[in-house]
# Entry
Amino acid sequence: MAPVTVVIPTFNEVDNLPLIAEALLALPLDGLRLLVVDDNSPDGTGKVADGLAAAHPGRVGVVHRPGREGLGRAYVEGLKAAISDGAEFVVQMDADFSHPVDAVPRLLGTAQATGAACVIGSRYVPGGTLAAEWSRWRQALSAWANFYVRTILRVRLRDVTAGFKIWRAESLAALDLGEISSGGYSFQVEMHYRATRAGMTIVEIPIHFSDRRAGSSKMSLRVQLESALMPWRLRFGSRGRARGNRG
# Structure
């Protein structure tokens, strides 16, 4: 079985982390490992992660960061650590059960069967669904955000803002994670955009996206503003680099 590392960034997920760790470790994937990247959560999530690592030596690892620096920065650190530890495939997912644990084997199987650099668990391809708890306003906002990003960046993905996916480690290494500039949720968009521009194949498979089980969303106004501005920065920044390269 290919070594697979699931990277989960956490900030105040003390109620969710033990449950999702149990569910992930119970999957029929012998090579699966969990890496928790905690931003010094005030609720003690980091201590819970340490307890899980002690209870499952070799299967659970923890990266402790000094404070809250954003989802993007947490993922960069976690992805780099997963690659260094020998993962062949790396899964990105949230700790709050919005992403279906039982879809992880399907992501891996699709990546192996297609040879894709990345396989996205998509809400917006045929068969994909959203939580029934979501209001019409929230559904419309999510759909509009995807349309907004796709239009600006001309990326042919249905769920370009998706946070649940699996990467080939060699593809992540080729993207040069140190060059990623996004600090917040726009990290997802930047990764998809960079992979597409590099000619990498991205496949989308349908999932059901659920509402979080416990805790609260980390989406602040600052994060929303970065998410709105990042597509423009990526588009015009890429043009500037291209002109510079031609000169």
Remarks:
- The radius of gyration is 17 Å.
- The first strand starts at residue 4 and ends at 10.
- The helical segments are 17-25, 45-55, 71-84, 104-114, 136-153, 169-174, 186-197, 221-246.
